[in-house]
Amino acid sequence: MKEIEKIRRRLTELMAKYPNRFIGAIIGFLAGLLLIVVIKLLGFFGALFIVVCIGVGFLIGKKREGKD
After folding, report:
1. I want to staple 28 with a disulfide (CB 3.0 to 4.6 A). Which of 2, 44, 47, 53 is the partner?
2. How far apart are CA 39 and CA 61, in angstroms?
3. Burial, 68: exposed, middle or buried (Cβ in 10 Å; 0-12, 13-18, 19+)?
4. Model-level pTM?
5. What is the pLDDT at residue 38?
6. How many structural domains is the chain composed of?
7. What is the pLDDT of residue 41?
């Protein structure tokens, strides 16, 4: 249980420090998931697509923050 609490605390710190990156990554994840369900893309390329969408969302959030 202590490990879960450490992870939760670290995620909370990161979300407070980089809120737009987290929001962008979550939106990218949801958009990727939705598109995969809609077009019924399965397997490796489906997983790769989700990762790319998360990355794009993260980068958009990072750019909105104006931080490196």
Report:
1. 53
2. 26
3. exposed
4. 0.56
5. 67
6. 1
7. 58
Domain that holds residue 37: 2-65
CA dist 46 → 3, 7, 32, 58 (Å): 31, 27, 9, 18
Grouping H, G, I as helix, E, B as strand and the rest as coil, residue 13 is helix
Contact 27, 56 (CB under 8 A): no
Per-residue b/e over 32-67, b at no fewer than 16 CB within 10 Å? beeebeeeeeeeeebeebbeebbebbbebbbeeeee
User: Would you state the structure tokens that stand for residue 56, as one six-digit string?
Assistant: 């794009």
Residue 7 CB burial class (10 angstroms; 0-12, 13-18, ≥19): exposed
Please tell me what DSSP assigns to residue 43.
S
